[in-house]
Amino acid sequence: MRPPRRLNEAGFTLVETLVALAVSAMIIAAIARLTYAGQRTAIASERRVDAVETLRKVVAALPSRSQLGGALTGTLDGHAWRVEARAFSQAPALPATARIAWTPVLVHVAVRGPAGDLIGLDMVRLRPAGAK
User: What separation in angstroms does the CA of 24 have from each of 7, 19, 36, 66, 79?
Assistant: First the structure.
């Protein structure tokens, strides 16, 4: 036969319960921080993808090579965009007798999202030599 249990031996002590509660709270806080960081990353990624999609739409709708020049601005899908085209200053020097059919033009496209994030693209396009 087993001896009867004494009242002070059954269950957990108050200190053990408080330690378990503190450890559980730390684990829950760490999980909450990770979840919040994941949400922020997902939102930033979504904003970036939206800006890139808008940038691609703007680039696809650029005027023809002969009409490219100066600055254009506008809005698309809640994003403000700006296109600047100017002569490409790093073009190599060619002899005066060379016949040039194309002139390089530096095109800078910038898109600013609704939250203020900015994405840009620089490219070189060729314009017919006689076009202004």
Answer: 27, 9, 18, 68, 44
pTM higher than 0.90 for the full model?
no
Q: Note the pLDDT tens digit of each residue in 98-130.
A: 777 888 889 999 999 998 899 999 998 888 876
Cα–Cα–Cα angle for 49, 56, 54, rounded to 5 degrees = 55
CA 33 – CA 93 distance, rounded (Å) = 57
What the block records as the tokens of 85 is 């085209």
Every domain of the chain and the residues it spans: 10-128
Residues in the chain: 132
At 91, the pLDDT band (50, 70, 90 cuts) reads: low
Which residue type occupies 46?
Answer: E
Which residue, 126, 117, 101, is CA-closest to 52?
117
Helix (H) or strand (E) holding 33: helix 14-60
